[in-house]
Amino acid sequence: KMTSAKDSILNFVSKLPKDAKVGIRVYGHKGTGSDSDKALSCSSSELVYPISNFNEGEFQTALNKFSTSGWTPIGLALREAKNDLASFDGANNTNIVYLVSDGIDTCDDQPIEAAKELYSSNISPIINVIGFDVDSKGQNQLREIAAATEGIYGTVTNEGELQKELDNLSNLTEQWKEWLEQGKQKIESKKIQNDLAIFSYITHEEGKALKEGIKIDLILFELHEAGRMSDESLEYLETKHKDYHLWIQEEIEKFKVELESLNEKSFSEAINKLESKYISNTNTQ
Questions:
Q1: What's the pTM?
Q2: Please, which pLDDT band fits residue 170 given cuts at 50, 70 and 90?
Q3: Could you read off the pLDDT of 6-42 as tens digits, one per residue?
Q4: Rounded to the nearest 5 degrees, what angle is found at the Cα of 37, between the Cα atoms of 33 and 43?
Q5: Among 11, 104, 231, 253, fewest CB within 10 Å belongs to which?
Q6: Distance, CA of 70 to CA of 77 (rounded, Å)
Q7: Where are the domains of the chain?
Q8: Which CATH class is domain 2-170?
Q9: Which residues have CB under 8 Å from 132's CB, separation 6+?
């Protein structure tokens, strides 16, 4: 699998635009898969090809520097990637991180939190995650890393599929389009959830007001029927009761409008922010 991954990655970067800068960081490559080597392996991550223009010979040499190990410190690699890209702020660069792994993080180094830290930094990268011949448990974690960073997750089982997945990700504009669509879907889903929550809450409040109104009507009726309330008192209290519950309904309606307005504003602001980032990054050379 490592040989296949190396071949696919070399072929992928060779097709990138000439002015694109590339780097390759490996992780878990020291030691062996034995328990005695876990500490060494889990603390190993190296930038074998510093971020620079692509040179096929030097890149090939960098790929040949390492082999596989049994431990997978994904969190460490992502934190180091943040340092690698520190001088490439997202305002002036389109930064993309491709995380390729053949399994779950085995070093307990909080890979999802590390991915969030990288994504929320001023580097503002797209983080694409590719699971290479990964079992279902590994896929769940890798998919969660992609979801936490609004990135794209793909799973492949062989070199041909890996090459195809990388080729699909080579078009930066198309990546950003997919990122934009995924982002819109999440925001729209959140708006719908909020709409349902508002509907449920308002319906509950209206139900409470209705029950209260029925109870008060019943009490007034019983007191009047029992001769413990005059006609004049009944008429007075029924008027007060009606005015009070009209006020309650008005307040509920006002609150409903306010909540819906806040939800709509939040939705619009999130969409605008999403589209602004999309425009900014697709216009960055």
A1: 0.62
A2: low
A3: 888 888 888 888 888 999 999 998 887 788 889 999 9
A4: 100
A5: 231
A6: 15
A7: 2-170, 181-282
A8: alpha beta
A9: 1, 4, 5, 100, 101, 102, 156, 157, 162
